Amino acid sequence: MTELPKAAVDRLIRRAGAERVASDAVDALIDILEDVATDISSQANRIARHSNRKTVTADDIKIASR
């Protein structure tokens, strides 16, 4: 089940310069973005726990995304 709305992902691809976007391209990018977001979120959670916090902060996300 996807969490990201297809219309938003379609807009991202178009904003990057595409004139036309196939539906399967949107679906493929959604899958990739969700995998990357899950990985970053997991790493950010580990960073927060290592700092003895239960709350994941924006800084945790930024560090995890590097």
Topology:
Elements: H1 6-15, H2 23-50, H3 58-64
Descriptive notes:
With 66 residues, this protein is mostly helical. The protein has one domain: Orthogonal Bundle (Histone, subunit A), CATH 1.10.20. It is built from 3 helices and no strands. The chain has helices at residues 6-15, 23-50, 58-64. The model has no long low-confidence stretch (mean pLDDT 97).
- For the record, what CATH class applies? Mainly Alpha
Radius of gyration, in angstroms, nearest whole number: 15 Å
CATH fold-level assignment:
Histone, subunit A
Q: List how many beta strands DSSP finds.
A: 0
CATH architecture: Orthogonal Bundle
N-to-C CA distance = 27 Å
Order of helices and strands: HHH
Kindly report the name of the CATH homologous superfamily. Answer: Histone, subunit A
Count of the separate structural domains: 1
Mean pLDDT rating: 97
What structural keywords apply?
66 residues, mainly alpha, Histone, subunit A, 3 helices, 0% strand, elongated
Write a concise synopsis of the structure shown.
This protein has 66 residues and is mostly helical. The chain has helices at residues 6-15, 23-50, 58-64.
